[in-house]
Amino acid sequence: MGITHTVSRLNPAIWSYDTLEVGGENLKSYPTYRQREVLQFLMSGNWVPILRLIPVGEKLLGNLLQAGWIKRGQDAKTGGHLYRITEAGRAAFRKPVPLR
Asked: Is 4 inside a domain boundary?
């Protein structure tokens, strides 16, 4: 499953933005408000258990993982999942959100 960048134009005179194509599904190349909340929480770079994350649904985590903005690891002691931001996630967090 590869990630490709395509340019999608809302109105060429006003704005254009990139979308990520992941597994045939188009995702925005910049994080939504909720995705930004999770990325900001993970900006320390440490592994964080899901219980310490702000209330996050499986779909939101799945979208962040699919975009490559976070990665999931296994806690050796508890066997639970740990999450951490990636360099791509840091870059996406710093990307400006287009105004509509």
From this structure: no
Say which CATH number the domain at 77 has.
1.10.10.10
Whole-angstrom distance, CA of residue 23 vs CA of residue 43: 27
Measured CA to CA, the distance from residue 1 to residue 26 in angstroms comes to 13
Can you give the pLDDT of all 100 residues of the chain as single tens digits? 444 444 443 433 333 445 555 455 555 668 888 899 899 989 988 998 887 777 778 888 999 999 999 999 998 888 888 999 999 999 999 988 777 6
**What CA–CA distance (Å, rounded) separates 74 from 87?**
20
- Whole-model pTM: value is 0.67
Is 62 a domain residue?
A: yes
DSSP-assigned beta bridge partners for residue 23: none
Give the strands of the sheet with 25-28, arranged side by side.
Answer: 3-11, 15-22, 25-28
Domain count, the chain: 1
